[in-house]
Write a structure and sequence with these properties.
The chain is α/β, with parallel strands linked by helices. It is built from eight helices and four strands, in the order H-E-H-H-H-E-H-E-H-E-H-H. A four-stranded parallel sheet has the order 1-2-3-4, with helices on both faces. The radius of gyration is 17 Å and the shape is globular.
Length: 229
């Protein structure tokens, strides 16, 4: 992935930009956007070292990604019909549009929750996303999902298998929420429990949204430090 990053830099990719590719949990204003604002919206508490990473990736933490869409599946982000006609070119996919407009060095790819009814399509579509991302000189960061709506964990297993095959970094969000009440899920078993981003309050980190944002920042910090070494 360091070679991919270096190739991306030769292509002019912005090392301060991370794109988000995903569904409603990625398109939500609750995901990372508070960190593009001031200290009225977040408090890092014992995680003050993350401020340097926030500063590095700001303002890309605050923009709306053209590849993070409500109801999105792995197929959706590869389908031109779902692209924003105001920003995207004719026949351009949401994924291609996002990478062209925001020019990222990294991409968080968090899909799978809405793929449970067409699970056989998930792995081949994810391969397309990964291979396109790599070809663009962008480092893909795969994300496991908190839910198990498919009942057999097959989607997270597919994500882990793809990461191993392509030697990709993985943000194991599933593991991060396992210690939380209800494993971080609301009663519907799909949506995350909410807490604000005030990490100075211990009770905050009993909610999955706070843990999602904290661990996302930790992943981005790992990426930032790795390419600086």
């Amino acid at each position: 992935m360091l070679d991919v990053y270096a190739r991306g830099q030769d292509m002019g990719r912005d090392p301060r930009v991370v794109s988000i590719v995903g569904d409603c949990e990625s398109s939500s204003d609750w995901f990372l956007k508070d960190f593009a604002k001031d200290d009225r919206f977040y408090n890092l508490g014992p995680y003050q070292s993350l401020q340097e990473t926030i500063d590095h990736f700001n303002p890309s933490l605050g923009y709306a990604s053209y590849a993070a869409l409500r109801g999105a599946t792995a197929t959706t982000v590869l389908t031109p019909l779902w692209a924003d006609p105001k920003a995207c070119e004719n026949a351009e996919t949401p994924l291609g549009c996002e990478y062209r407009v925001h020019n990222p060095a990294f991409a968080i790819i968090a899909l799978g929750t809405n793929d449970v009814h067409k699970g056989e399509q998930f792995e081949p579509r994810m391969r397309e996303i990964i291979e396109y991302t790599l070809a663009q000189g962008i480092v893909p960061i795969l994300v496991t999902k908190a839910d198990n709506l498919e009942g057999d964990e097959s989607i997270n297993l597919a994500i882990a298998s793809l990461a191993a095959h392509y030697h990709l970094p993985v943000w194991n969000f599933w593991a991060a929420v396992q210690p939380l009440p209800g494993h971080g899920l609301q009663e519907d078993g799909a949506h995350l429990t909410f807490r604000s981003n005030f990490f100075n309050k211990p009770e905050t980190l009993q909610g999955a949204w706070a843990v999602r944002n904290l661990t996302a920042l930790q992943v981005l910090e790992a990426m930032r430090l790795a390419v600086q070494e």
